[in-house]
């Protein structure tokens, strides 16, 4: 029972419950009244909680001890504070969100982004349980005791019970573990929040927000307790029903409980930090404010958050993984302060699902939308200048030298605890800062070439990578596990950053950087998280490459085409400067790798220069000694001070150089450029190996088996001709390499790793096509078919939640095509009878659909690939032998290694759909006639199986050589919305 103060309060009149036929989610209900009934009741409640947390991630809480009237009273207090506190006082008592990462105080309207072009319309007032820590608004003072009592009750009587039940639900060794982690007497960021949403978006803003008042997000909390209120607006994803967004029903007097990211980490993602959002209400509730009360809970400041595997048999049985390496786990304070600072600032909206508008927030390497990556704490101080500019500072504490930025700009470098950043630069100062960046570009360019101003003629030289002189070389940053702050380019800078006449506003740059690190980077984590400013300072080339890569999937699709030639120009300039200073070389290599992995769109493979960039990156890495696990001193003309610390970073970069260049070469049917053991000066066992993250280690091991297999198979002569006896040996090789791959797996693989694993398996298995029919080994081909389907199904699975293919490197192209054509070949062969036709067909069209998603230009390789794949599926001529039978096992192009499987299909396509003469026409007969192929013709009964019925599974009665039309594949509704200019594609030379 909360003691009411006598002070008068105006009642906030909430909306009436909606009568509209909106859909509500069905949530479990926990009756906290049963908590006192004894251990059996508690065990039952705990199990209910476990079920709720592993499904919806939300539940209703009733009988929690606070009456409806007491909750209403709090809503009234909140509304009173919002309506009656003078604006100046609110401003004065704003929470130090950006400065300290604390919510204690007011959050005024507009602090968060509510859409690409709108700020929020929500006012918050947050109270910490020690209300004396900050000055409270005059409007609250009369109610302070009452609010304190409400907080205390919520914390001690509701939260503690819930935490106890949560511990029981996980069967923690220490039942009180969560309770102790939320001690009432210690400090943490837990806050009571009053929140008032104002229904005041303009029409223009509504377009940007798509009706959302608060974008989809996860809470940063351990638990969030929301006091139910009548406006239908809170929505959660209904995981029981296609993850559709559904409203949460109002239950008078109840609370709604959900877990946040801290609980997600504690449980290794076993408990969902469910995504939720606030949507404008149905029609009959529109035009009203929404005022409500919440209690957002966080562990005490010093609690280190990590997965409780050692404490919980439930988690061990569930097979979850540790969220962080023990030494890397963040404390509650570090996490909260970092996360609160950036909340709603660098939001990236889910482009795949624009209506969902799910925000991704990043604190350094900790991404709020997915189970965490590792993080390590970094506690360095910044000098006053760097703090002012919000730049990372490499000043050494108690060291007489100036930081590298102050040295460069000839500033006084002062370290002072008392220094407080002044919030915003004046417009003039900002102007100066931008000019400084631009003039740095021109003055540092070799041969004095100037950065182009917007007016400069477009054929002038463009800025190139800046190689710091040795004296200025900044000290290295630890790549793995740092928790860098996410800096922004100052929002109000009017001009933005320019490249060769193209000006990109700071806001866009920020969004693109967030997009890159949230979406692209997880697929191929070459880069450490960095801010736009830092990145630009270190290497404009790398900066622009990041901007380009992210722009591929940016909502404004006019940006990417403007960037491509500029970025390629920059790349060539960067190469021509051939940096030999380690830091500059690192940045150039990184940029080249990005451009290799996400090459600029081209319409024919011949124009793709990713090979050039990846080989160059590789060579530049070797030249700088990155392939040696020592510090690289032997490769330098100056004394390398920091190189030792960087050896892990360089080893990682070297790993990516080999993996990327290899993937690109193999995809083009060229031999691997580098065999890891050529450089294996016992490096695998040296100090860097244990520091590499497990995913990269696995990738390297897979890569080693893959290249060994390709080398051995190619060198053993199976490529040119393969007799029946040799086929047996070939199959044995394939079998042994597959065993080697399987032996690498000593732990469950995550989704990314599984795709990599299946891809390598598929790549080795396709060499079966090089065998001879005499020794046809059916089980091997059936497995091959299954791998091909697995690869496409895995990729398709990964695509929906992560956009793995859309945002991932484009060399995934190759594996998609390889899998699709493997399926096509096998389904058009005598082996068809042993295969699951429908599965193959589904997987084949998944490949087409993945290409559709990857395509960023109507005429790029993916768009063209769609047409080719769709036409070949319906072709009656493909793999047609001279005697009229169809044999997908007959491989005519053999010197392009595994890629022959793909290129051979392209030639079938060219001959049929492009009217090109078939250069292999004679060979087709010859191969079959000479039994170099699998000689299907000679198999008893085979020829009758390979007649017309096989060739056109989906469309009957179609005339051969007809142009592709969407209704050829009527089952796939995407095809009808496909905007591929078929005429141009077909008339141009392809691939
Ligand atoms: O307003 C609500 O109902 C939810 C608010 C919320 O999700 C949040 O502040 O994190
Ligand atoms: Fe929330």
From TrEMBL:
GO terms for molecular function: DNA-binding transcription factor activity, RNA polymerase II-specific; transcription cis-regulatory region binding; zinc ion binding. Gene3D superfamilies: B-lactam Antibiotic, Isopenicillin N Synthase, Chain (2.60.120.330), Zn(2)-C6 fungal-type DNA-binding domain (4.10.240.10). Its main location: nucleus. Residues 382-415 form the Zn(2)-C6 fungal-type domain. The keyword Transcription regulation applies. Residues 188-299 form the Fe2OG dioxygenase domain. CDD domains: fungal_TF_MHR, GAL4. It is found in: Nucleus. GO terms for biological process: positive regulation of metabolic process; small molecule biosynthetic process. Keywords: DNA-binding, Nucleus, Transcription, Transcription regulation, Zinc. Residues 437-478 are annotated as: Disordered. Residues 440-461 have a biased composition (Polar residues). PANTHER family: FINGER DOMAIN PROTEIN, PUTATIVE-RELATED, REGULATORY PROTEIN LEU3. This is Zn(2)-C6 fungal-type domain-containing protein. The lineage of its organism: Eukaryota, Fungi, Dikarya, Ascomycota, Pezizomycotina.
């Amino acid at each position: 029972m909360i003691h009411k103060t006598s002070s008068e309060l105006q009642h906030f009149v909430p909306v009436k419950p909606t009568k509209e036929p909106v859909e509500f989610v069905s949530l479990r209900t926990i009756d906290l009244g049963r908590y006192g009934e004894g251990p059996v009741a508690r065990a039952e409640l705990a199990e209910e909680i476990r079920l709720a947390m592993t499904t919806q991630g939300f539940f209703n809480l009733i009988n929690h001890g606070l009456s409806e009237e007491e909750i209403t009273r709090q809503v009234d207090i909140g509304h009173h504070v919002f309506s009656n506190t003078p604006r100046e006082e609110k401003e004065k008592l704003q929470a130090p969100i950006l400065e300290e990462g604390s919510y204690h105080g007011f959050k005024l309207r507009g602090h968060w982004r509510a859409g690409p072009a709108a700020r929020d319309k929500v006012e918050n007032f947050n109270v910490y349980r020690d209300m004396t820590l900050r000055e409270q608004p005059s409007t609250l003072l009369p109610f302070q005791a009452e609010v304190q009592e409400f907080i205390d009750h919520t914390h001690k009587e509701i939260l503690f019970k819930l935490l106890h039940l949560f511990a029981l639900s996980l069967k923690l060794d220490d039942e009180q573990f969560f309770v102790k982690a939320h001690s009432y007497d210690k400090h943490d960021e837990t806050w009571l929040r009053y929140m008032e949403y104002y229904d005041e978006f303009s029409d223009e803003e509504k377009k940007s927000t798509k009706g959302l008042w608060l974008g989809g997000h996860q809470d940063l909390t351990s638990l969030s307790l929301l006091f139910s209120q009548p406006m239908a607006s809170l929505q959660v994803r209904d995981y029981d029903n296609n993850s559709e967004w559904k409203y949460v029903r109002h239950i008078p007097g109840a609370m709604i409980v959900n877990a946040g990211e801290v609980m997600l980490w504690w449980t290794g993602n076993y408990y969902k930090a469910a995504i939720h959002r606030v949507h404008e209400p149905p029609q009959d509730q529109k035009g009203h404010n929404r005022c409500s009360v919440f209690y957002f809970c966080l562990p005490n400041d010093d609690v280190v958050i990590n997965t409780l595997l050692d404490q919980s048999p439930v988690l061990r049985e569930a097979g979850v993984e540790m969220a962080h390496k023990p030494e890397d786990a963040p404390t509650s304070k570090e996490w909260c302060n970092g996360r609160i600072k950036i909340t709603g600032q660098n939001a990236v909206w889910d482009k795949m699902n624009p209506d969902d508008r799910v925000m991704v927030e990043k604190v350094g390497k900790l991404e709020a939308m997915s189970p965490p990556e590792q993080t390590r704490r970094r506690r360095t101080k910044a000098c006053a200048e760097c703090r002012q500019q919000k730049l990372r500072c490499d000043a050494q504490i108690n060291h007489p030298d100036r930081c590298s930025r102050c040295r460069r700009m000839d500033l006084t470098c002062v370290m002072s605890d008392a220094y407080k950043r002044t919030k915003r630069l004046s417009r003039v100062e900002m102007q100066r800062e931008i000019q400084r960046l631009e003039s740095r570009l021109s003055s540092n360019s070799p041969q004095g070439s100037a950065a182009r101003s917007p007016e400069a003629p477009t054929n002038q030289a463009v800025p190139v990578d800046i190689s710091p002189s040795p004296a200025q070389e900044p000290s290295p940053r630890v790549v793995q596990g740092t928790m860098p702050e996410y800096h922004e380019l100052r929002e109000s800078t009017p001009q933005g950053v320019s490249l060769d006449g193209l000006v990109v506003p700071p806001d866009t740059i920020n969004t693109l950087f967030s997009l890159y690190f949230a979406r692209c980077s997880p697929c191929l984590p070459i880069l450490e998280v960095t801010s736009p400013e830092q990145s630009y300072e270190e290497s404009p080339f790398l900066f622009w490459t990041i901007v380009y890569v992210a722009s591929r999937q940016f909502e404004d699709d006019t940006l990417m085409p403007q960037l491509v030639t500029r970025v390629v120009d920059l790349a060539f300039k960067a190469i021509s400067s051939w940096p030999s200073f380690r830091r500059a070389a690192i940045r150039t290599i990184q940029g080249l790798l990005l451009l290799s992995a996400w090459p600029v769109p081209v319409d024919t493979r011949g124009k793709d220069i990713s090979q050039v960039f990846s080989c160059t990156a590789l060579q530049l890495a070797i030249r700088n000694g990155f392939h040696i696990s020592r510090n690289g001193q032997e490769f330098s003309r100056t004394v390398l001070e920091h190189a030792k610390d960087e050896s892990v970073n360089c080893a990682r970069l070297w790993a990516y150089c080999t993996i990327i260049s290899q993937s690109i070469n193999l995809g083009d049917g060229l031999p691997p450029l580098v065999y890891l053991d050529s450089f294996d000066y016992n490096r695998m066992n040296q100090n860097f190996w244990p520091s590499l993250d497990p995913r990269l280690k696995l990738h390297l091991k897979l890569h080693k088996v893959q290249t060994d297999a390709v080398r051995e198979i190619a060198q053993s002569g199976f490529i040119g001709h393969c007799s029946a006896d040799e086929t047996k040996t070939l199959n044995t090789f394939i079998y042994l390499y597959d065993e080697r791959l399987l032996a690498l797996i000593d732990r469950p693989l995550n989704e990314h790793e599984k795709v990599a694993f299946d891809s390598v398996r598929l790549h080795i298995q396709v060499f079966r096509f090089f065998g001879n029919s005499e020794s046809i080994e059916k089980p091997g081909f059936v497995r091959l078919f299954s791998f091909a389907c697995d690869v496409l199904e895995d990729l398709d699975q990964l695509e929906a939640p992560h956009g793995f293919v859309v945002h991932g490197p484009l060399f995934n192209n190759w594996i998609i095509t390889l899998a699709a054509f493997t399926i096509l070949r096998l389904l058009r062969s005598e082996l068809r009878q042993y295969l699951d036709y429908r599965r193959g067909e589904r997987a084949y069209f998944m490949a087409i659909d993945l290409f559709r998603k990857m395509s960023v230009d109507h005429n790029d390789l993916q768009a063209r690939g769609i047409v080719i794949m769709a036409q070949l599926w319906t072709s009656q001529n493909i793999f047609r032998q001279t005697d009229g039978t169809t044999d997908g096992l007959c491989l005519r192009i053999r010197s392009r290694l595994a890629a022959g499987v793909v290129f051979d299909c392209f030639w079938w396509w060219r001959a049929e759909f492009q009217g090109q003469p078939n250069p292999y026409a004679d060979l087709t007969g010859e191969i079959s006639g000479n039994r170099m192929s699998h000689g299907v013709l000679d198999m008893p009964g085979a020829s009758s199986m390979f007649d017309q019925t096989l060739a056109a599974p989906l469309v009957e009665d179609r005339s051969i050589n007809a142009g592709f039309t969407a209704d050829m594949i009527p089952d796939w509704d995407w095809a009808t919305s496909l905007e591929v200019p078929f005429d141009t594609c077909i008339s141009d030379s392809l691939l």
